[in-house]
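Regression report. Comparing outputs from two consecutive submissions.

Submission 1:
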Amino acid sequence: MTLTDENNVEAQKINYNSKTKTLYKWNKNPYYYQSGSSKEKTYLKIGCKANYRIRTDNLSDKKAKKCNAYKSAIKKSNSYYQKGTAYLAGSGISLGVVACLVTANAVFPPSVIVSIVVATLGGGSALYKGASALANSQEKYYDAKDYYAIIKTYGKKL
């Protein structure tokens, strides 16, 4: 912060990259992140129900790894989601039906969820691959949720 001539406080300007958020809201709320910088300082803005700003250029290695893991979980969730929708487009089974079954069985590991979906809706490699990708997308979404709960304590609530 800098002081102006009239002793008013002026906040520093942080320039952020575009927002990356989860494509599918497995738990009603998307998680997101934005990287930013101001002079020599770097920041990570994260959010879901609340938004936080974390200064990243002075974090310990352990904390920086958790921030990177949060970003990676969001990217992987989106990648699996896109693969799942592509596979299901060729199966004739709606994304909504499969996503509901995946969500309803979220307490199980992805392999069990896929078995439940295939047993409920019938076989087919497109359905199997689509359900598998969506189950993995959901798992990475919940990984992002877990990392969010941890790394939000590194920053300041906005």
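Submission 2:
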Amino acid sequence: MPIVKYFFEEPALLETPMPDANPDARRRTERSADSDRDPDADTLRALLNPATAYRGYLAGTDLEANRVGLTACSVMDAMVHALTAVFSHPHACGIAPDGTFNADLDMQAVHNWWTEPQGERVLALSDAPIDPAPLHSVAQQARREGSAALRTLMEAGVTVFFSEPAHDGFDWSFFSPAPVRDALVDALRTHVSASHVRCFVLPFQKARSESKFYFEQWQLNQASLPTYIQEV
């Protein structure tokens, strides 16, 4: 039986790096001589008022077939129904693995991207037209360095999906401007669990180690799961 895991962080703060020569604001060595200057207005605003997003990560495992990766499991037809129930918006666009910008995607195209990303893609969905500039910035930078552009998209009401390479196929992560956990859990229960798939929901903070992320590899046969893991 395939396994689907939904990791959530609600809310999640979007940390903006300091404008140092070193993009990691936590490192204090090897700074340039002028790095102690006061932060600019945008950076100061981000530090004093960090942006809030609602983060999710959808992963999959087929234990019988020994395949790890959501899109590598026989769950994607059901997953598309669940994702559509929560994230169906009139405007969608995305950036393909080769950097090509794809404007005005219809929902069938969105379904195809979810099912077979064929590389690292960025997909954006919204009720209003989407500005491609911050989406390009998000796609071209490491996640943390692209947090300012991601903040811009969240403030505009855009949900952003990222295909995440897995051992086989891809998982999907996303950042939403509004809470989605309850709606997505209901959609998983309705569309995915009903398809003879075991679905589990747990907080990001409880799955930071590899063994906890892949708990299904060793823990499902135990009498009970940790209390922070909910099966739906």
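Expected: both submissions complete independently.
Actual: both completed, but the second showed a warning that disappeared on reload.
Relevant detail on submission 2: Helices lie at 41-48, 76-87, 107-115, 132-140, 147-155, 181-192, 210-213.
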